[in-house]
Amino acid sequence: MPYINLKTPIPGPKSQELQARRAAAVTAALAQANPIAVKKAHGSLVEDVDGNTLIDLAGGIGVLAVGHTPQSVVEAIQAQADELLHMCSIVANYEPYVALCEALNRLTPGAFPKKTLLSSGGAEAVENAVKFARRYTGRAGILVFEGAYHGRTNLTMAMTSKWGLFKKGFGPFAPEVYRLPLPNPYRTPNGMSEEEWVDWCCWNLENALTAHIDPSALAAIVIEPVIGEGGFIPVPHKFLRKIRQICDATGAVMIADEIQSGSGRTGKLWAIEHSGVIPDLVISAKSLGGGMPISAVTGRAEILDSPHVGGVGSTYGGNPLACVAALKALEILQSPGFLEHAQHIERIVRETFEPIKSEVVALGDVRGVGAMMALEFVKDKTSKEPWSDFAMNTIKEASQNGVILIRAGLYTNCIRFLPALDIPQDMLREALGVVANAIRTTHQAMAATA
């Protein structure tokens, strides 16, 4: 029996009514990927206000590795709400804040003394990580990479790569941020092998310490082990090792931005664990909170202790409700066999879409790690010219047939899959079947105009 149950066209009349209210009341600058209004959700199923049941493969942009409304998370929030809604860690201490920091200190990579600072969102955590690195090193320069996304604050926009969607009209941006090419295997330059491309990017990273910034001015190198918004690009392990080597040689801080790739998304608690590289600081958010807003910077105790007292803080950071939700989410992620679900998701995604590459020439690449997978669409497989309209039309077609998706990619030409890790395999296959049919439908409609 199918999981998708559509009682009205998508969007239904009640969704359209709420959409009109949103258009009148909410800034037009706030995007919305799917034209539905959600009433409730559990696991991987979403019910909209018209009574339609859809399968969620967007996962709140990677927030729901443990699914919608997991029972233990909901119960922990309810129990905590009876005792303490807010205190502020700057005002007084409370057990959930300390317990979550202890858990993150224990679970993040590295057998050295660690400490943690909690905040409310990913961009805030990135800013805190940069502050820690600058204070610890006494330097200002930050190295980041093409395709990176680190947030929407002024500093994190400076660190983010994509101009048109995130940065246009918002400058000037924070200084002392330097950007370098990232070895995206799918877009290896003509005439190079993938290995040569990675080697060149490693050389360029070293060369940047002469061409862009002196080692004495470099505070940190910030890298997403799997590039998120930029298109779900697994960073080659050799490149991650080169970053570690340069940080060791220069005294700079290596920061792993695990906001989207962490908290179990790739089949390990932290994506960088696949490489064996140990960063100095790890940034967590999204699925860390099991649906609640929380983020963290965790790493070497001497770095976290380097600012003066009062130099960091957050009114809502480490809110008691978010802390207990995160503790339960981490508990679920560590339960026997739970992270193994990510491997099954990757296998099923590849089994579904790899064969379609020969059928639909617009499908250029199927990539990712675990439950962090993406499809990239191009107008031509040789030139690899991005085809963003194809991705967006496919998302619309899938939505109309009961599957919730979002786009990704530096060129907005990718579809990303961020399902709950424990999505039933038959439910996943049903949802991916809808996406596959949407790709075929879009191809038939658009191929002639390519």
Automatic annotation (TrEMBL):
CDD domains: OAT_like
Keywords linked to the UniProt accession: Aminotransferase, Pyridoxal phosphate, Transferase
Keyword DNA repair tagged: no
Cofactor: pyridoxal 5'-phosphate
Molecular function terms, GO-annotated: identical protein binding; pyridoxal phosphate binding; transaminase activity
A family per Pfam: Aminotran_3
Keyword Transferase part of the UniProt annotation: yes
Gene3D superfamilies: Aspartate Aminotransferase, domain 1 (3.90.1150.10), Type I PLP-dependent aspartate aminotransferase-like (Major domain) (3.40.640.10)
Classification via PANTHER family: AMINOTRANSFERASE CLASS III
Annotated family: Belongs to the class-III pyridoxal-phosphate-dependent aminotransferase family.
Name of this chain's protein: Aminotransferase class-III
Source species: Allomeiothermus silvanus (strain ATCC 700542 / DSM 9946 / NBRC 106475 / NCIMB 13440 / VI-R2)
